[in-house]
Amino acid sequence: MRVYKFGGASVKDAEGVKSLGKIVQSNFESPLVVVVSAMGKMTNAFEEITNLYFGKQDRLDKALDKIRNYHLEVIDKLFLASQDNLIEQLEELFSDLKLFFRGNFHQNRAFVYDQIVVYGELLCTKIIHHYLNSIGLDNVLIDSRKCIKTDSYFRDANLNWQLTIELIKKFVHPKKVTLAQGFIASDLAGNSTTLGREGSDYTAAIFGYALDAQSVTVWKDVRGIMNGNPKIFDPTVLLKRVSYREAIELAYYGASVIHPKTIQPVQRKKIPFFVRSFQEPHITGTKIGLGHKLKPKVSCFIKKENLVLLKISTLDFSFLIEKNISEVFALLDRYQMRVELTQNSAISFSVCFSNKYRRLIELISVLKKKFKVVVYRDVMLYTIRHFDQQAIDRISKNGKRVLLEQRTLETAQFVCI
Ligand code: ASP
Ligand code: MG
Predict the structure, then answer these.
(1) Ligand 1 within 6 A of CB of 40
(2) How far is the CA of 408 from the centre of ligand 2 (A)?
(3) Does the CB atom of residue 183 touch ligand 1 within 6 A?
(4) Which of 104, 260, 263, 391 has the most CB atoms lying inside 10 A of its own CB?
(5) Ligand nearest to the CA of 5
């Protein structure tokens, strides 16, 4: 059993879907699970639908039409004959969504978000299921929400591993191609949940783990994992081999080509994990596995933007003790901040985090009741793994002001503004 995953960029148009078909066709010699996420930027479009639902409901129909037309255009370019049956099935999904709009009385934004955004993946996999059939690739379409089971922490749900493994084994076809949605899941009450943005890599790893797959491959619009985002750090080189541990570190620090939760499950079962280009399938790309820590051995660069840096001290400049710091962490957790870096000195505690759910104002107002708080908005965090002076010089050349710096044996980090 093997697992393939195709992300939004690889199925953003008819051409992309066709190359998915070719890759699956030319590699199909054993049972395969194909995990697919929403087409192109469709998850963003459904996020926008969620915003409209809470604000301007009169604009919902028009925004949904745009999403509908995007998919219809792909269908139009993909098939020679008209696809009434497929289009009818897509319309059913749109009707289900409208039914939810009318019947929903929940005000919990994260809950509503998850009930809406899953449609990006549902629409996409319907189209791909029909396309693969049309090129003679018999495949079984399953609804990942029926086998990936989570708690009810909407938008970033946590897996119920035991149940999920059982259900995956039950739903995946032992011989054919099984097609499944990435990113989406459901809680025990049957509500839709999601695994966090860009979570379909993680879905692929979950399937791989549950099925003891011989490999998991994610097909992307890049040649593999580079030692930096080529749009930011030019020139970059392709990392041919990366150890599980190093991949976890890179993802943790924000290397956006892999979702942070992805590597752990494949590492536990020592399943080789490949990142390859769907446009250049002849290139092997990156292999994450046992052995080589990093090949070639180069410095790796990661940049995160739109972060917040807080410098917190007590109002009377007394020492910040464990009790204060744990209070600060409890608040960071309560307001769902994702902490990137912390540093403490005798009288101040600095923390850099992402204001993921836009709750910074609430957080600051609570903190200010007890502490002196200096806020730097819109800061950047540069991380260099395996740094040397030359690598640091590359970062510092960009003329930004460094607000905070931290170095460990293998990692140097700079918060800049
Ligand atoms: N479609 C989801 C997103 O865009 C999941 C994914 O792409 O992995 O976040
Ligand atoms: Mg996506």
Answers:
(1) no
(2) 34
(3) yes
(4) 263
(5) 1
Ligand 2 center to 371 CA (angstroms): 40
From ligand 2's centre to the CA of 285, what distance in Å? Answer: 21
Q: Give 93 Cα–ligand 2 centroid separation in angstroms.
A: 19
Q: Which residues have CB less than 5 Å away from ligand 2 (the ion)?
A: 8, 37, 43
Query: Which atom of ligand 1 has the smallest separation from the CA of 199?
Result: 8
Measure 40 CA to ligand 2 centroid, in angstroms. 6
Tens of pLDDT, residue by residue, the chain (417 residues): 999 999 999 999 999 999 999 999 987 777 999 999 999 999 999 999 999 999 998 999 999 999 999 999 999 999 988 999 999 999 999 999 999 999 999 999 999 999 999 999 999 999 999 999 999 999 999 999 999 999 999 999 999 999 999 999 999 999 999 999 999 999 999 999 999 999 999 999 999 999 999 999 999 988 999 999 988 898 999 999 999 999 999 988 888 778 889 999 999 999 999 999 999 999 999 999 998 889 999 999 999 999 999 999 988 888 778 888 999 999 999 998 999 999 988 889 999 999 988 899 999 999 999 999 999 999 999 999 999 999 998 887 677 899 999 999 999 999 999
Rounded to 5°, the CA angle 61-39-71 comes to 50
Pocket perturbation via mutation, ligand 1, pick of 198, 201, 258 by most ligand atoms within 8 A of CB: 198
Nearest CA to 195 out of 230, 151, 227, 233 is that of 151
> Does 182 sit in the ligand 1 pocket, CB within 6 Å?
yes
Among candidate residues 168, 196, 170, the one with its CA nearest the CA of residue 184: 196
Q: Is the CB of 37 under 6 A from ligand 1?
A: yes
